[in-house]
Amino acid sequence: MYQRTKKDRGFTLIEVLLALMIFATLSVAANQIFRNVINSNIQTEEVGNALKSLQRTLLIMDSDFRQMLARQYRNGGDEAKETLLEFGDDFLDSESQGIRFVRGGWINPQQLFPRGEVVKVGYRIQDETLERIRWMYPDDSSAAEPASMPLMEGVTGIRFEVQGSDGWKKDWDTPLEMPKAIRVVMETERYGELTRVYLLPGQTIAPPVVNTP
To answer: Does the keyword Membrane feature in the UniProt annotation (predicted)?
Structure first.
């Protein structure tokens, strides 16, 4: 009768189950590593996109706030106010504070566009998104709708303070004069509280001369 030797023997059930268990353990570990790599890539992309959005927002804000002008302007065809800088709670339908002012340096290469280099801009928060508002002309009519551009999501609040001759103030009503500096504080979900301080030339406008007979 044929006798089976050790070489002729196959795997036992226990050996097969053990091999399957080892293979399953390695598969689970490999799958977990793969999922961690994917999640890491997603988080890295989210952080990168958020950082790009922040950098773009600060770049636009820096360009606007550093080029503020002491210039009167009309809103909706009304008479020009003596206040050169407007801001406050619920201003421009903002969920927090809003602000509006005139800036220069709006590049118009070779005067190709039907506008000047002075523009009226504003900032507000809508649906926890910081928006920049731009009017085509500093003295707009009631028929002219401003253009709104979302800048950064996750902004829960914004407030402004200005520096006058008597220190920092939370409002500004000095006629025909710009403050010496403005502080912008943004409250964000990702970065917490961000503060930017812009020094201004403190320009003033001479009051109109009234001719008396």
So the answer is: yes
The answer to whether residue 4 is domain-embedded is: no
- The answer to whether position 48 is within a domain reads yes
Least Cα distance to 161 among 135, 192, 200, 189 occurs for 200
pLDDT digits (tens, 9 = 90+) for 50-105: 899 999 999 999 999 999 999 999 888 778 888 899 999 999 999 999 999 999 87
**C-alpha span between 64 and 200 (Å, rounded):** 12
Q: Considering only CA atoms, which of 204, 187, 173, 196 is closest in space to residue 86? A: 173
* Residue 2 domain flag: no
Question: How far apart are alpha carbons 56 and 52 in whole angstroms?
Answer: 6
- Overall domain count for the chain: 1
pTM attached to this predicted model? 0.77
By the 8 A CB rule, do 124 and 94 touch?
yes
pLDDT tens, residue by residue, 120-165? 999 999 999 999 999 988 888 777 789 999 999 999 999 999 999 8
Host domain of residue 83:
12-207
Q: What are phi and psi of 59, to 5 degrees?
A: -65, -45
Farthest CA pair distance, the chain:
142
